[in-house]
Inverse folding.
């Protein structure tokens, strides 16, 4: 039976996931909680981590833990300084987190930064490395849709440039905290309304601000269904992202890495623009990237 | 001494204001509370109104009350149906609210609607009428900046067309409920940053979505001051509004009606686009509009 070799950790703003990896590379166990870094002070990270996986640790010396995500932000456990692009997504040098429990050797992966235009990522560099592990020859653009969507130009194994769009964050704020909250209360979806809104936002981006309140007005005057309003809001925001991200997808080889539903929406929006994007499986990408970081760190003398 | 003739009421989503008007037209008293319609069920409006002004009412028969704002929405006291543009901002016919207290004769001003593009207003029609009372010959465009900014084309005393932009609502949602909340925590202001952002959004509206996250990234990487971030966010959103509202201001005679600070920002943004807008005093405009509604209703046989 395989013995615990190291622990892979994805610690974001609102969630914490850990996988125990055996000496043969197999996943022995996994744990998850909603103890995201957003709610923790510096001294609370180690207890939170031990709460989740303490019962999984043996007594025979420290186990290597490799973590990615916001845990390495300035407000996280310890700051893992950004590395500037152009560079490979991962580096052999990781940032050790201060621990009191002798069973832990906790190391954090650095995020990436770009000075002009100013941009940052934390966690996505590990997903990019995971994608590269599966697609070692890939040259082109990786789109990682989500709360803060990233468009990443990758060439010869390096991240050349990237741009962040806070599309999911905007959708949640508008759907939850503006007058449109009355208009989009549903989980239903209209692909037709979504596609029309993407097309409208991409082809007439200067009209975007005029489109939003019409979702409310059409609800009051013409009984616009909530599914149409919600799909149009999503289409307008994704369309605005695509209009601004044009240099990233025009004539490029695009791969989408993300959750299934949102990835399909981006693929459908790009398809309408004549871009045939490949959807890569987002499920195990982060874990593969953490494994790549583990290999890289093992090969390094540090 | 002047005797109470009627009561003017401005009842919005989050506030309630009332003015007692004497037989000579003078304001005898005023009352205000934060009992907005947003927090009230249908049966709670009359008690809320009596709480505020009950002690001002005499015993000698009903007093006429004329109200504008969201109190006339479907979720308000009683629905005062929209009137379709093109039409004058006010109509002699008002909608009576059901009352139990014999001292009240409460009437609500209708909002305006437009079918294509779908749009609605409630309350602004009264401000427009107030502006017209001060500027009876005005032909051109009235801009009413705020939570839901309105651009209104007025000609020959009628509202011809209008468009709503939820700019203030968006600003509050983004500044309060997205990752940018960390970047814009200040009340300070940078006119330079605001002006540059307006120019950027008006001249390159297709880049808007790319600009937002840069406020966060520049804060992390280049210590962008919060005042610059806040002013740029405001400039980007007002710029997006101006880009979409171009048909309303291009070559038009523009008057701005609103609170002092936000009106000055719109005037400065328009000035950079070569539009010399007049700022009209927003303070007493609503009251003047309510007085116009009172005169109109008195002249009518209803």
């Amino acid at each position: 039976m395989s013995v615990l070799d190291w622990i892979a950790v994805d610690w974001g703003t609102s969630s914490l996931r850990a996988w125990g990896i055996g000496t043969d590379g197999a996943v022995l166990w996994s744990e998850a909680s909603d103890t995201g870094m957003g709610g923790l002070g510096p001294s609370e990270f180690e207890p939170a981590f031990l709460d989740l996986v303490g019962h999984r640790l043996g007594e025979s010396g420290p186990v290597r833990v490799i973590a990615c995500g916001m845990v390495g932000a300035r407000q996280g456990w310890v700051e893992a300084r950004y590395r500037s692009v152009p560079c490979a997504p991962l580096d052999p040098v990781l940032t050790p987190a201060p621990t009191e429990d002798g069973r832990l050797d906790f190391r954090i992966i650095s995020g990436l930064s770009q000075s002009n235009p100013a941009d940052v990522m934390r966690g996505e560099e590990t997903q990019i490395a995971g994608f590269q592990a599966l697609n070692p020859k890939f040259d082109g653009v990786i789109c990682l849709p989500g709360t803060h969507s990233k468009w990443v130009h990758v060439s010869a194994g390096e991240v050349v440039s990237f741009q962040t769009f806070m599309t999911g964050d905007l959708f949640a704020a508008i759907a939850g905290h503006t007058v449109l909250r009355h208009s989009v209360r549903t989980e239903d979806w209209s692909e037709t309304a979504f596609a029309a809104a993407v097309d409208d936002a991409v082809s007439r981006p200067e009209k975007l601000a005029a489109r939003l309140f019409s979702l409310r007005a059409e609800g009051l005057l013409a009984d616009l269904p909530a599914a149409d309003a919600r799909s149009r809001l999503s289409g307008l925001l994704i369309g605005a992202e695509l209009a601004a991200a044009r240099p990233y997808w025009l004539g490029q080889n695009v791969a989408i890495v993300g959750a299934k539903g949102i990835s399909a929406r981006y693929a459908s929006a790009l398809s309408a623009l004549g871009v045939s994007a490949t959807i890569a499986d987002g499920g195990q990408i982060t874990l593969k990237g953490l494994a790549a970081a583990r290999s890289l760190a093992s090969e390094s003398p540090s």
